[in-house]
Design brief:
By secondary structure, the protein is an all-alpha fold. The protein is built from seven helices and no strands. The protein has one domain. Helix 3 packs across helix 6, helix 4 packs across helix 6 and helix 6 runs antiparallel to helix 7. The chain starts with 21 loop residues before the first helix and ends with a helix.
Length: 117
Amino acid sequence: MGPTKFLKPRPFKFNPTIPANVEECIQQMVKWGGEIDQFKKKNEDDAVASTHHSVGKWIRNEWGLWTGSQLKDYFVNKGLNHPDDMSGVIIRAFHRYLNGLPLDVENEINRIKSIEI
């Protein structure tokens, strides 16, 4: 099965604990605590790459980016199709938030779309 399986929103049961957009993701993530200071100090690309198999995996699985959720629909409706890319956008935006930088979500989505095969 090719990448087309990710192109359309999938039916899902609404779960109010799952964020509906990147800003809501950040609101939840700031409450997590943990090693936020270490994460914040990393450069942006390292921060995203170093969390892909930990926090990124949790985001993909628990927030329904593989199975369907309002958050997945948010990204699909913006033209972002793969859950790995979706979690990367969330993590990058969180890193930017912690460092007082503009989230710039739309430009990040457009950047990823421009390099997708």
